[in-house]
Amino acid sequence: MNETRHRVTLTVNGVLREATVPGRRLLSDCLRHDLGLTGTHVGCEHGVCGACTVLLDGEPVRSCLTFAVTVDGHEITTVEGLARDGELSPVQRAFAECHALQCGFCTPGFLCTVTAFLRDNPAPTEEEALEAVAGNLCRCTGYQNILKAVHRAAELQTELRAERQAELRAERQAELRAERQAERQAELRAEEDR
């Protein structure tokens, strides 16, 4: 029996992608098999372990519980999309710095979960960080370094925001200097023309 196939269009990691999938194709399988993005891992296939977590319009979802046809037209961010311009995201850097991974199977789900969490709560308490990662299972690390990584990522994001603000201030000051210099030159030319 031939199952009806559906064309889905997704923006995945900032790139418009299309796939033709059966109605029962899970988002995790669509990402891995149809789009070749194998960073999303499939663990329990029951929505319990969190290894398959991706961001759907910025919110963490279990891709093993989500049908691909239900997210047609939406934006998906997978672990492959967290880095920008070849630079690891603050969350990725923190996980590496804090040795918050061992076998790495659960890591993509943690990275997506923590990315969304820190966007909404940039300075979490220990209890808030623990609650944020409690829905993702890890069999190797004991979670201590994962919790350290959450706090380190928060620090890195704060540092990045401060650097960006300083860069913007410097750019604005340079623009103001250039405007003043242009105004002064115009005044000098006007005086010469008199």
TrEMBL record:
Protein name listed in UniProt: 2Fe-2S iron-sulfur cluster binding domain-containing protein
Residue intervals passing through the bilayer: none
Region (Disordered): 171-194
SUPFAM superfamilies referenced in this protein's UniProt entry, alphabetically: 2Fe-2S ferredoxin-like, CO dehydrogenase ISP C-domain like
Organism: Microbispora bryophytorum subsp. camponoti
Keywords, sorted A to Z: 2Fe-2S, Iron, Iron-sulfur, Metal-binding, Oxidoreductase
KW Iron-sulfur (keyword) present: yes
Tagged with keyword Kinase: no
Domain 2Fe-2S ferredoxin-type: 6-82
